[in-house]
Amino acid sequence: MYGAGDVRVENVPDARLVEPTDVLLRVTRACICGSDLWPYTQMAHTDAGRRMGHEFIGIVEDAGADVRTVKRGDLVVAPFAWSDGTCVFCREGLQTSCLHGGFWGGTDLDGGQGEAVRVPQADGTLVLLPVGEDDALMPSLLTLSDVMGTGHHAARAARVGPGKTAAVVGDGAVGLCAVIAARRLGAERVILLGRHADRIALARDFGATDVVGERGEEAVERVRELTGGLGAHSVLECVGHDLSMTTALGIVRAGGAVGRVGLPQHEQIPTTSATFFANVTISGGPAPARAYIEELLPDVLEGRIEPGRVFDRTGSLDDVPDGYRAMNDREAIKVMVTP
Ligand SMILES: [Zn+2]
Questions:
Q1: CA 98 to ligand 1 center in whole angstroms
Q2: Of the four listed, 74, 89, 120, 187, which is most buried by Cβ atoms within 10 Å?
Q3: 93 alpha carbon to ligand 1 midpoint, in Å?
Q4: What is the maximum alpha-carbon separation in the chain?
Q5: In angstroms, rounded to a whole number, what is the distance separating the alpha carbons of residues 4 and 43?
Q6: Do 305 and 184 form a contact (C-beta atoms < 8 A)?
Q7: Ligand 1 centroid, distance to 187 Cα (angstroms)
Q8: 284-319 pLDDT, tens per residue?
Q9: How many whole angstroms from 103 Cα to the centroid of ligand 1?
């Protein structure tokens, strides 16, 4: 990406092993993320460009001498951050704060929207998938890179639990996965705040019990009506806008929690006074997707959850620029890429 609206498919130097802890991965599935749309709409032009893509599955083509957990020919999924798996934060399950990790793409590391990726800290980062590279489960497995783990993180941060009412703000792929996650953790009622008919239909399939199409103050009033005036125990903020955060804080019940996973596009969290007096917990951040893969993988493999249904378009690498456009125009929920 060279700037807002400027995505190009170009040849770059081949990915290769640099450190003995690296793996060279041939990408078999990748995708475009809702968070990629922030730079797609806002990024200032750069001459160097920025490698894109942080969700991918691939085949190990080569492994450095110190790699122990995967070998040539293995099919693996990569979370959206790479991590060593051994530092104090990784051991606490917070791999996005790894002392020796980082994020894909940018200017000096490969992105997932490409043919191949150099994977640093491969032992800590990659997770083996016990299926073939064209398995029918591939879309759902690919969501473990980011959106399903991020939806799960929102649910955890919002303290979803059995019998509780959860409200999900946002009907993008993460919001839809958050509906799955809230139901999976036992929420009795899941209210989706969203406005797109195709996404609402999918959310209902995923277990949303109520849908609120209003925005802003009207949305707050509607959720309050649905919850006997009290608000939701757990609010999963899956957008990152000022308005969505204000809405999230407006619909949370006293003593409840807001789990925020939308990349914040604002510098401040609004309504500190109201949330203070209501004892509202505000939590969340980038999901430690790596920590959640082992927990969520059996549910995907055994068909209990189908987060892969968020993909409604598939294309080649050459289709990636149009995929950004389609997602930005809300023509597609999420685009899968088969290099
Ligand atoms: Zn670490």
A1: 3
A2: 187
A3: 9
A4: 61
A5: 5
A6: yes
A7: 32
A8: 999 999 999 999 999 999 999 999 999 999 999 999
A9: 13
Each residue's pLDDT tens digit, 112-151: 999 999 999 999 999 999 999 999 999 999 999 999 999 9
List the Cα angle 239/150/247 in 5-degree steps.
30
Query: Where does the chain show beta strands of DSSP type E?
Result: 23-31, 56-63, 75-78, 81-82, 102-103, 116-119, 127-128, 165-169, 189-193, 210-212, 232-237, 252-260, 281-284, 313-315, 335-337
Question: Which residues are within 8 A (CB) of 10 and not within 5 positions of it... i.e. 6 or more apart?
Answer: 49
Distance 95 CA to ligand 1 centre (A): 6
Q: Which amino acid is at 20?
A: P
* Cα four-point dihedral sign 326, 331, 337, 339: negative
For residue 261, give the nearest of 288, 281, 280 by alpha carbon: 288
pLDDT at 13: 92
pLDDT of residue 106: 84
- Spatial neighbors of 230 by CB under 8 A, at least 6 apart, are 224, 253, 254
What is the Å distance from ligand 1's center to 311 Cα? 31
How much of the chain exceeds pLDDT 90, in percent? Answer: 93
pLDDT-above-70 percentage for the chain:
100
91 CA distance to ligand 1 centroid (A)?
Answer: 7
Q: What is the DSSP letter of 217?
A: H
pLDDT of residue 135: 98
